[in-house]
Amino acid sequence: MDTAPDVRMPALYLSHGAPPLADDPVWPGELAAWSAGLPRPKAILMVSAHWEEAPLALGATGTVPLVHDFWGFPEHYYRVRYDAPGAPALAAQVRALLRSPGTPVQDIPDRGLDHGAYVPLVEMYPDADIPVLQISMPTLDPRRLMDIGRKLAPLRDEGVLIVGSGFFTHNLAALRHTGGGVPGWSAEFDAWGHEALAARDVDALLDFEHKSPAGRLAHPRTEHFAPLFVTMGAADAAGDLDAERSVIDGFWMGLAKRSVQFG
Known about the structure:
Blueprint: E1 11-15, H1 27-36, E2 43-52, E3 57-58, H2 88-98, E4 106-107, H3 115-124, E5 132-137, H4 142-152, E6 160-166, H5 184-198, H6 202-206, H7 208-211, H8 215-218, H9 227-237, E7 244-248, E8 251-252, E9 255-256, E10 259-262
Parallel strand pairs: 1-6, 2-5, 2-6, 3-4
Antiparallel strand pairs: 1-10, 7-10, 8-9
Helix pairs in contact: 4-9
């Protein structure tokens, strides 16, 4: 980490897109404008929908190859690099905050950034000059993930940008949608989620599968919504749930790309 004065960083939840996000005419600019309006992080802590591992794991603390965890794309997407510095000091802080009797934390030192981490970072911090640490989700239980976020919240006061990276709706059936426009279930869930966040209705969000319209269609599996709860926990511990705003909205191939900032 650098020696810049510590500034409390916001906590973000973003919809990360697939590798072709880089070719979208609008979305990369939205991500770049977002990061340009933030204080410069001393380090970035990423929680991606694409890494579930229990016990909670810390990824590489040095620069290692990216995890190209996707198939069937044109070759140039597999040549993308993001050689951000590792964050060993941040890893030590995360271990201290999360490890306790009965709650182990493991290290997987050769695990590079997956596309849920590097795809948005390429657009937001293209110089790859900020240390990045990725950690796994050890559970998909929203309440447990909020607890993890609360424990990580002190890092925000040390200039660490906590980013939960998922997708506000994620049912790949949307990619086969032939009816024109946005699938109804995606639009309905996006509108409900926007309203629930604006109303600070944490209980509804935690129980989104039962309290939202089309929750099970929007998220047949929880992993792409789950990083939101780490972000919310980091915001809740700092009293920032009331300081939420949607920074990016709209749809990409039928999926809601809503992305939010707390603080």
